[in-house]
Amino acid sequence: MTRALSRAALPLAVLLVAIWLGAALTRHRPEPAAPDPPARRIETGPRIWYPVGQYPVLALPDGERRTVRSVLNIRESMRFGDYVWNDQHIPKGDTWVRIDLGRQLLSVFRDGHEIGSAVILYGTDGKPTPTGVFPIMEKQVEHRSTLYDAEMPFMLRLTGDGVAIHASNVRRGSATHGCIGVPPSFAALLFAAVKRGDTVAIVPPARIRG
């Protein structure tokens, strides 16, 4: 199944600047269709730190609010297959994942600091990705879906009916049967960073938020 996915994803830092300053996030204009460039790991500039007492807050679909202490300084729009990972000098702490379906972006946080980000694939209208807050129920490095007869490496199961985060060929025009697909190299890093029970918050597109 496919969907027309042609928009570059803006880094989370852009959204948080809007929250922090009380400004509205400007939508990125759709780009003309073109062949996808090779997948790449984007290098970042110095981490963006927020002043104590002025931390931005992200609201989860269940109403819980999570404080953000710093974010990755991603200096360009991310494209299909792109990801960032930088956890240098970030202390151990609670790890959670935020998936924004509207912006097609997954962000990983540890101790309030963003340590990873990737452009994702998600479900079609016929097989939509569920939204809400989910614990990681199961982890498998090697997993094969019996329902779709497909390999799903670095699988992180979120629901009893098989919705999971897993490695995928993240490319323009593709979609999933409800799972979250991430670049394989990023999937391996994410798999190592999280444990069973960690929170995954899947945020719906803005147009259907309550």
Walk me through this protein's architecture.
The strands form five sheets. Strands 5-8-7-6-16-9 form a six-stranded mixed β-sheet, covered by helices on one side. Strands 10-13-14-15 form a four-stranded mixed β-sheet, with helices on one face. Strands 1-4 form a two-stranded antiparallel sheet. The chain is mostly beta strands and 210 residues long. The protein has a single domain, classed as L,D-transpeptidase catalytic domain-like (Beta Barrel). The longest helix is centred in the first third of the chain and has 10 residues, at 12-21. The chain contains two helices and 16 strands. The chain is globular and about 50 Å long.
Sequence of strands across the biggest β-sheet: 5-8-7-6-16-9
**How many H/I helical runs?**
2
Number of distinct beta strands: 16
What global shape is seen? globular
Per-chain topology:
Elements: H1 12-21, E1 45-49, E2 57-59, E3 65-67, E4 70-73, E5 83-85, E6 95-100, E7 105-110, E8 113-119, E9 132-135, E10 138-140, E11 144-145, E12 150-151, E13 155-157, E14 164-167, E15 180-182, H2 184-193, E16 199-203
Parallel strand pairs: 6-16, 14-15
Antiparallel strand pairs: 1-4, 2-3, 5-8, 6-7, 7-8, 9-16, 10-13, 11-12, 13-14
